[in-house]
Design brief:
Rossmann fold, 6 strands, 220 residues
């Protein structure tokens, strides 16, 4: 039985914090210099794993990260839209601080679709279906399967692997750009662990943030 290695794509120029932070969503922004460095650092972390295949979001920042990992692992890469983040439609590219009321609404009403995008429930089901398929591949493999995705997807992972309540997925925290998270099956159950001393799992499995703190909703 292998493992599933989950990687958050590297940093982009839109991954800034503070009053000028913009919602990234499905904007096809590339890695910046920091993101390229992070991707190479992550490639160093996976040097000790035998990777059978790499799957990645088809957005450019994830594909670039996956390509750097491919050079290290020699594994083939498959890009798929199922690993994209939550599609927040018309809100992508906007300053987060300026759309807080709308993010609050979408957080309170997860069945409500974003203008030109999808609801949180639609995102969750899309990603959960793909993640479960990747877990099956990893379980059948003697090596590792790798997936490069986005922070909102990683925040949803503990809920998906534990068959938890989709309404309890956190909207803040999660691993920083370039982070590696390892999923492995023990005693019949999938578990998550951080790598390289990063305390990422605790943040991913914390209680969901209340709607009043919507500025912390991850911008993907």
């Amino acid at each position: 039985m292998g493992k599933l290695l989950l990687v958050r794509h590297g940093h982009t120029h839109l991954n800034s914090h503070g009053k000028d932070e913009r919602l990234r969503g499905w904007i096809d922004v590339p890695l910046d210099e920091e993101g390229l460095r992070e991707a190479y650092q992550t490639a160093g972390l996976v040097r000790g794993y035998r990777v059978e295949a790499i799957y990645c979001s088809d957005l450019r920042r994830a594909r670039q990260t996956a390509e750097i990992l491919r050079r290290q692992t020699k594994a083939p890469v498959t890009a798929t839209g199922d690993l994209r983040p939550w599609n927040l439609g018309a809100f992508a590219g906007e300053r987060v601080r300026e759309i807080i009321p709308f993010l609050n609404l979408l957080n309170r009403r997860p069945e409500l679709g974003a203008p030109g995008g999808e609801s949180f429930y639609q995102f969750f089901e899309r990603y959960a279906t793909r993640l479960r398929a990747l877990l099956e591949l990893a379980e059948q493999s003697s090596d590792c399967i790798m997936a490069v995705t986005h922070v909102r997807n990683l925040l949803a992972c503990p809920t998906i692997i534990s068959d938890g309540d989709r309404d309890s997925v956190p909207v803040r925290g999660g691993p920083k750009t370039g982070s590696l998270v390892v999923l492995e099956k023990e005693n019949g159950k999938w578990s998550m662990c951080s790598y390289g001393g990063q305390d990422v799992v605790r943040h991913m499995m914390g209680p969901a943030t209340t709607p009043e703190v919507a500025p912390a909703i991850q911008a993907q």
